[in-house]
Amino acid sequence: MRISIPEEKKIVHEMIMPIRWGDMDAYGHVNNTVYFRYMEQARVEWITSLGYSVAPGRESMLMINGFCNFYQQLSYPGELILKTAIGAIGKSSVDIYTTMTLTTEPDVIAAEGGATMVWVDLTSNKSAPWPEHILQKLR
Length: 139
Fold this sequence. Notes:
Elements: E1 10-18, H1 32-49, E2 59-70, E3 79-89, E4 93-102, E5 105-121, E6 126-127, H2 132-138
Antiparallel strand pairs: 1-3, 2-5, 3-4, 4-5, 5-6
């Protein structure tokens, strides 16, 4: 099953990330689980670029689902361009998408995926409406 990435989204962050030797598996290509780690790192860098910490406090942004569409095998050595975009912003959630391309082939998508992130009150362990200061940055 392939999940479609919506056309309507806004690119909010871009970064370069090296493919590490240890990212590969016994088949000589980047293990599928590592693509999720690449997307996680892109989200973390985007969140910290907004001036927020990813370390949990009383409230935090948590991932409630994620997916990845694999189009091309990746292997070491190489560098990835990870572009993070946001889609629909809900009362307490936001859809985040990441595309991965090699720096040597920036127009060829190797993989793309996404996650739904929810703002959570960690004392009650329930979703909560976005604080206005975060909504302003998301918009």
